[in-house]
Amino acid sequence: MKQRMQGMVMGIIAMPLLLGTVTVLAATPQTIEMDMASQNSTLYTLQASNVNAEYQRTLRSAERGDVEAQIDLAWMYFEGQQVTQSYERAVYWFRRAAMQGNADAQNSLGLRYLRGQGVSQSYEQAVYWFRQSAIQGDYLAQSNLGLRYFHGVGVEQDYEQAMYWIRQSAVQGNAPAQFSLGFMYQYDRGISLDHEQAVYWYRQAAEQSHAMAQSNLGWMYEHGHGVELNLEQAVYWYRRAAVQGDDFAQANLGWMYEYGHGVELSLEQAVYWYRHAAVQGNARAQSNLGWMYEHGYGVELNYEQAVYWYRHAAVQGNARAQSNLGWMYENGHGIEQNYEQAAYWYRNAAIQGNTFAQSNLGWMYQYGIGVAQNYEQAEYWSARAAE
């Protein structure tokens, strides 16, 4: 039976390599090419024959009711290994194995329903098959069932049930479940808030190289939640996650470098990590990268690049980027001066509570710049900024 993986099983079927020896006297390139073509043709025929024989053996065993063969055949169809890929045929064989009570097949069938692969999408059917597998102790199904309860997908939202099933999976060493359990403890979902337990489960997953757990563990160390504040440890875990591509960890690591927290201050390294997170769409990193370009910190000053990154973050709702983009429009830095656009972005940031934007928006209302003059609005936003 193939090795199990989260959500998908990858199968590699090894083919025997057949080698032949050819004696060629005063061979010409054309003679060698013809000989190689002949060998390759023979090799292909023999490999194809072996592949077909393997498939036929698996098919015969599956049709006789062999559960392991049914699962292997399902994955052959799912991945297009030795056969034309067909999600529908994969579902057929997963179902045959699942109906015999095989927990692995039941979880796999649940995933097909969850994703609508080879079958009409049905969250309720996904939950049904996850449950059948979970009650047999399958750690992947337990995690999948717990997440359905957590999000209320295919079943009524129930944090207690989510906690129950995710814990069942976590104690079996499943890193994604351990991360989820840590998250639930950190944010009071289904159980009383407990930062020490959050740290414990994040650490269990982090030590298995779970990037999001490493990132969150770094955050706990940075802020001293559930563990003694330790900026060096924060940097350590942020870096472990960042090199795996976690954008939140990359943004946070950039922040640590920018301010010299737990690591020697380096604006160049700050820019490096902000950029890695920014290109993945992380709004905070985009805003911070824009700031670095605007002021020439760790990178050559470039107002156009500042505007570029501020805008990317602003359209995602980042208040600081919206405020800074308004400033760039007001002053014509990196973009044509436009007071109406300045007011527009100040307003977007102001309603989110950005005091700099509130103050500037009040000033624009006071003097009728980019907006119709309105003393009441000027007073309102100036008061909000002063709170």
Task: Give the structure's gist in a few sentences.
The chain has 387 residues and is mainly α. Helices cover 67% and strands 0% of the residues.
Overall shape: it is: elongated
The pLDDT mean sits at 89
The largest β sheet comes out as: none
Low-pLDDT stretches are: 1-48
What kind of oligomer do you see? single chain
The sequence of SSEs as H and E is: HHHHHHHHHHHHHHHHHHH
CATH topology of the largest domain: Serine Threonine Protein Phosphatase 5, Tetratricopeptide repeat
Distance between the termini: 65 Å
What is the CATH homology-level superfamily of the largest domain? Tetratricopeptide repeat domain
CATH class of the largest domain: Mainly Alpha
Which class of secondary structure composition applies to the elements? mainly alpha
Provide a count of the helices.
Answer: 19
Task: Indicate the CATH architecture of the largest domain.
Answer: Alpha Horseshoe
What Rg do the Cα atoms give? 29 Å
Helix content: 55-70%
Query: Please, how many domains?
Result: 3
Question: What's the number of extended β-strand segments?
Answer: 0
